[in-house]
Here is the input.
Amino acid sequence: MPILKTHYTPSFFFKNGHINTMYSSLFRRTKPLSFKRKRISTADDDFFDLDLLENGEDKIVLLCHGLEGSSASKYIQATAALLSQKGYAIAAMNYRFCSGEINKQLITYHSGRTEDLHAAIQTVLPNYKSVYLVGFSLGGNLVLKYNGDGIYALDPKIKASVAVSVPVDLHGSSICLQALENRLYNWRFLRTLSKKVRLKHQQFPEQVPVEKLKKVKKLIDFDEFFTSALNGFKDAKDYYSQASSKPFLKSITRPTLLINALDDPFLSESCFPTEAATENPHFSLMSPQYGGHVGFVSKGNYYWSEQQILGFLEGYK
Here is the structure.
């Protein structure tokens, strides 16, 4: 598919990428959904939690949240509410240590851990005729990588996928996040990530070097000392290289849409894969001028990006 034209024109206030990014997280109101939690046991004797909205429909959307998010994240809640109203069942992932309970193993969730996404898909497949994947930021990278890396054979029931605000080039994104203007985002992420490291240290005192938290000033530092070390990567550079979805976009074989705003403060120029969108008929890129990171604020109960997700999935029933 080609690079798609867009028509997202927010009010003047939201033409600032930082404001569009922060508004939803800080001020958006969503109604809590009545999820039914299902614990998924993993092959390595660990677990993650899947939150379900089962409404008798035969098609389901698997939602994947971003860094330090959960099924309670406002963008997950709003997307789930809209899609469930339109006839889709919902399965919202909570990655390891993201549902309020520490996971059992040393390893953590990260941008490339598609084995847990695969486990979630295998859980819902028997009960539905059609499965759709939707991911945001880190979760979007998971969805894109799963679609293209060839590690798992895609079940025929998987009809289409949408990824929103995705750092498809993790190294390029890490450089952007080092900018002074992004220090607030770094602080918010590192605050909760550091708490988890301290809890992991209590769980595995000999294997989690909690003293290195003193050296962590930015997300790239956290990935260098913790994400990579706890998950079998040599360093942050190796983690970014292996986990980034960008190299696999040309190999995607199911209808897939990537929505990345040009003013997203998290994304480098390398996170706009125009070549892949031009060459791969199954992969589409939508790059509106505005939107921020998982922002896309608009009037009404549902934001512009959520309406785009619905519209795209409706084309592949």
